[in-house]
Amino acid sequence: MRIAFTHVRVFDGEQVLAPTTVLVEDGLVARVGGFAPPAGVDRTVDGTGKTLLPGLIDSHAHAQPEDLTTALRLGVTTVMDMGGPSTAEDRAVWAARPGSADVRGAGQPITAPHGHPTQLFAGLSGPGVPDPATFPQTSSPEQARSLVDRLVTGGSDYLKFILEEGTVLGAPGLPLLPHDAYVAGVTAAHEQGKLAMTHAQTAETWTRAARGGTDALMHLFIDRPHDDRLVEAVASSGAFVTPCLVLVRSFLGTAATEVAADPRVSGKLDPVWAEALARPLSTWDAPFDDALASVAALDAAGVEVLVGTDASVAVPTTGGQAHGVSVHHEMALLVEAGLSPVRALRAATSVPARRFGLDDRGRIAPGLRADLVLVDGDPTTVIDDSLSIAGVWRGGRESFSATA
Ligand SMILES: [Zn+2]
Hints:
The protein is built from 15 helices and 15 strands. By secondary structure, it is of the alpha/beta class. It folds into 2 domains: about 1-55 and about 360-404, Urease, subunit C, domain 1 (Roll), CATH 2.30.40; about 55-360, TIM Barrel, CATH 3.20.20. The longest helix is centred in the middle third of the chain and has 13 residues, at about 140-155. Zinc ion (ZN) binds near residues 60, 62, 82 and 310.
C-alpha cells in the first residue's frame, strides 16, 4: 500500500516544512519533501490547507481497550499507561485490534500499604475500576525490589512509583512510601534497564523523587509556587515532567466543560466521558497561574515537559480529563504556560518518543512508522487547530477519516 500526501504542511516532530509531499509505503514513511507526487500510488490525500503531524503520544494515561479506540479517533496513536493491571500480552492483544492506539505500560504502580490510589477505588465497582487490593503495596526496601522484579517479569515497560500523601487530593495523611523503599525500587528498576516514573504532587515529594533518581515526575507540585531551589533540583536530576495541567486545572476547581462542548469533540465522546470532562475535582485551592508559572520555570531551566493527561476511568473520584481529547487540551495549556505551539507539539511527539526510547515513531521521517494525523489548518501557529482532525493513520493504516 502506497499513500501520497500532497501539498501538505508538515510538522515532522521537530520542525515545520512548507507544503510538500510525503510518501508512505508498507506502513512506513518512505520519503518526506523535495519530490513530485509519484505515479502509481494506491491513494493520494490532498493536504491543501492542512497539516500532517506525527501521531500524538499521551505520556500519562490509564487505559482500557475501549480508551485506546477513543484515543486513536482523536489522533493519539500511542498511549503510555502509567499504572494498570494489564500484562504485556494484554497490551499486545489490545493494540493489535483495528482502530486501537498502541500502548506501553508500567503494570500496577508501587505504593505504600493503603496508599494512593487505593482510596480512589475503595467501595467502587464497574468496568475498568481496579480492586485496590491488587496494587503492589510495600513499606520495605527488600519488598520494593522484589515487587520491581515481579513487575518486570510480567512485562512492565517501565516502573511507576507513588509518592502521595494526599495534601492536594483533599485526602491528607495518606500513607507514603518510605524513602528507603522508594530508592530501593528506583534502583532496582534501573538495574533491570527500566525507567522509573514517580507520581508526586508536592514540593517535598518532588524533591525526594529528584534526589531519589527518578527518570520522570508525573504531575506537578501544586502545594506551593515554584522556587529556584526546587526547579534547580529537578533540572540537575535530568528527569522529565508530565505536569498533567488538565488534572491540575480540575483539582483547582475548573471543569473542562468547554472542551466537552466543542463540536469537534462531542461527536467522538461517550456521554460518560463528556460528563467526566465537566466534573472538576476541586480538591485544592491555589491560583492556576502559579501552576502555569511552575511549568514555565521548569521549561526555562531546561527540564523537558511532556504531554500527559492522567485520563483513567470515569468514576466520581476522577474528573476533568478524557482519553485522547485531553492530549489536545494539555497542548493548549502548555501554550498558555508559554511554550510555543511547535514546542507543545514536540512535547506530544518527538520528545516522548526519545525519552521513552520509542525509536520507531514520534517524527515523520523515512523508515519510521507511518503514525500520522492530518488536521485542517495549522496547529504549529494556532494550537487549537490540532483538534480539527481530518484523518488518522496508524502504521500506514487509515483508522479514522473525518470525510468518510
Ligand atoms: Zn496517573
